[in-house]
Amino acid sequence: MEVAEKRNVAAEEIEETGEEHIILVFSLDGEEFALGVNEVKEIVRVPPVITRVPNAPAYIRGVINLRGTIVPVFDMELKMGLTSKELTEDSRIVVVSWGDIQFGLLVDSVREVCTVYDSQIEQGSQLNTSMERKYLLGVVKQNGGRLVVLLDLVTLFDLDEVIAEETEEVAG
Question: Over the stretch 94-143, which tens digit does the pLDDT of each residue have?
């Protein structure tokens, strides 16, 4: 084995320390973002029609019927303060679930599922971005200098608050 190859193997071993995390990487506005796969239920093609919901916030694209279940679809670009673009052949809806809540995230494309380690994740507070840092769990540094922003789904969509409201409605 050549010296350069040994160095590369050693660098990969150093990076792979700490707890293992499996993430789904997707693209928004030319940047790469990720969620933990344990939050992802499935990935579906965008249907020909997403039914608009009257008086809904702009980032709620509408609802879809997914095998008999009505699923709200959120435009991730609008939710994160980016400019929403036209849908393409690569656009997908990432269906996620948190407790009993299920919803879809409209993304430009799904890139890959990969494994990262704690040692590869830096805190989001160190990132220079216009996006609110509270929505970030961190930034994943992958081999080759590639950066992927790891999103905090619960904070981004105030899921704890939504669950509390639903619990109050059921109790009341």
Answer: 999 888 889 999 999 999 999 999 888 887 655 555 455 667 888 888 87
* The residue type at 28: L
Q: How far is CA 121 from the centre of its chain?
A: 15
Q: What is the pTM of this model?
A: 0.78
DSSP line for 4-57:
HHHHHHHHHHHHS-S-EEEEEEEEETTEEEEEEGGGEEEEEEPPS--B--TT--
The CA-based angle 70-71-76, given to 5 degrees, is 160
